[in-house]
What does this fold into?
Amino acid sequence: MDILISDISDLAGFEFNLDFDGGLISADSITSGNLFGADTWPITSQINANSISFSETTFAAGLDITSPAILATINFKAIGPGSSNLTLSSVVLSDSLAASIASFDTQNGNVYLAPVPLPPTFLLFATGCAWIAGKSRLRTKSTPIQS
It folds into this structure.
């Protein structure tokens, strides 16, 4: 999952927390979107059972972000079926003078994990396929050959 940003002027640093239901998904890793390139200075990258904290800054000039850009990419692993809110909190954006950028909107997300079909369903399906294949083979063998 990508954390995106757009329509921000003079961005030189950011931090955020992402909260989720740790009973349904677990975060395996978080990587930088490399927004600041070689001038990136990572501050925090922490994965907990129900949340992620991440922050970066740059000492170069702030960036003007006009189209969506990736701040970070998070890899999740499914634990069980259900629905989990993905809630951004403690979001702080800062400019090249280390002042907070006050005017921005955040959008939260949701992930839905469908249940995996149960083994008896697969067994019933496989049995039906085998029966059809067997009937087809018997029909082919029992056809008399006429000369």
Observations:
- The mean pLDDT is 84.
